[in-house]
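The freezer alarm interrupted the setup, so I double-checked each line after restarting. Inputs confirmed:
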Amino acid sequence: MEKFKKYIKELFESGEIEGFLGIRKNGLHPVPHLFTPEHPEELETLTIPDVRYPMTEILLTIVRKYPDKKLGIMVRGCDERALNELVKNQKILPELIKHIGIACSADLAASCRCAQPYPEEIHYGEKVAPVEDRSDIEAIDTMPQEERFDYWMSEFSKCIKCYGCRNICSMCFCDQCTLEDNDLIATGQAPPAIPIFHLIRAFHMAGRCIDCGLCEEACPAHIPLRTLYRKVRESMSGFLGYVSGTEGGEKDPLEFLGSEGYMVPSKIDEK
Amino acid sequence: MEYRTVLTTCTYCGTGCGLLLEVMDGEVVGVLPAKTHPINEGKLCIKGWNAHEFIYADGRLTKPLVRKGDTLEEASWDEALETIANKFAEIKKTNGPDSLGCFSSAKCTNEENYLLQKIFRAAIGTNNVDHCARL
Amino acid sequence: MTQKEESFEPKIIAFCCNWCSYAGADLAGSMRLKYPPNVLPIRVMCSGRISPHFVMKAFQKGADGVLVTGCHYGDCHYMKGNYITMRRVTILKDLLKFVGVEPKRLRAEWIAGSEGDKFARVAHEFTDEIRNLGPSPLRG
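Predicted 3D structure, all chains:
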């Protein structure tokens, strides 16, 4: 940890970064914080807990106000996937953002069921094995159709329409949200129109979701949102060959019509 | 360039969820749920997620207003409290203490809520006491 | 067939693009071709304009089936609109299936301005298919 703090201090002194977005200890609670060269003493409170905050979401808040600053950000595997998508969507400039990599602990990787619990370059922690687990999707795929419908409807009916899943999502960076369109989503109604409220959000996660699971962690109704989004993520890679969160290369085929604009889905299975 | 978070308690209801106010250059710009808070464990309802919005709202009351004729006019706290005390005394005298009642607020602390019911029961003499978190 | 199934008449919303499919539907009319009155066309400028939200809203408002129609590949007035439509429909069908709604309730077809007969045929086929599936679980 001391070595890590020293590394950040060196980055400040060399002028490579003008701020470091990390986690600070506030009494018993680890909270996000922007460390700056003006207050190097704050680095004493720097901590790396097994708690995840939407770091890239916070980064966007800062970048919107300070688009020219060189910033360091503490990234886990999920944060790095989010940053890759943000670059593709032209929300951040990669040359201004320095990734300071954290490998997640085995405990955290297990509780997140994370398929990639480490970033490309690691500055703190040891790489642990990825967790490959799609039992949640399989459990639903094996249900008979009617049971599946009833299952999701009972889950969705718990929704209190807090918009927490959207608010905490690193990939929800649109200026306007279709879930706030009064013509499409009635106001003053909870649960919102089910299942369409959740399916629309799920659809928008296709090609975007980086499978960090913060949505499910933030859901006060314990709706298995992540399962839904993992499913659309799988559909995207199955039909359109796109996996969100990968570095560089191709962009989300649902949003970008570049040179691959004439590609059609590989197969449509209706069984 | 400054970004920090302030750990505080949601002011909307009696549950007491922990939230982080996101402060950028001295201005509150957003809310994050406190992940390690024992009450809400990183979850918030829609009111909590928007708990920062009233801070800079145009309609926010920052000074007491006293009705003079048909209009509400800004007044000092002394003037406002004096008006309230005089009216309460007058109403109690003409219509009895049960013609008065109070609603307290989840935005207050326990102690403030205690004091409000105390002043109504002991000083005014009514049991007409209620609270918005008693849903 | 039970009494209930016999009396079921599906409600079908057809989103038609302005340049090809709506003209195709128009032509079906001009040719005096009969197609089921269950199909209610809504004109949009391009099939790429059809947000998945519109499709879901149609289901929520009581549609038993949704037909999305556009120009054939290569014919899109806006070059690539129909490609994105096909991608969206594919993902949306898979999602519907995952939550227990028959994916057949959503169908995409390419209908050119000269294909009035195809519009009528698709309308017949789709109405029969939805009639067999019964009322949508998303109704209400």
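Quick read of the result. The interface with chain B takes residues 18-19, 21, 26-34, 36, 51-54, 58, 61-62, 65-66, 69, 160-164, 167-168, 217-220 of chain A (CB under 8 Å).
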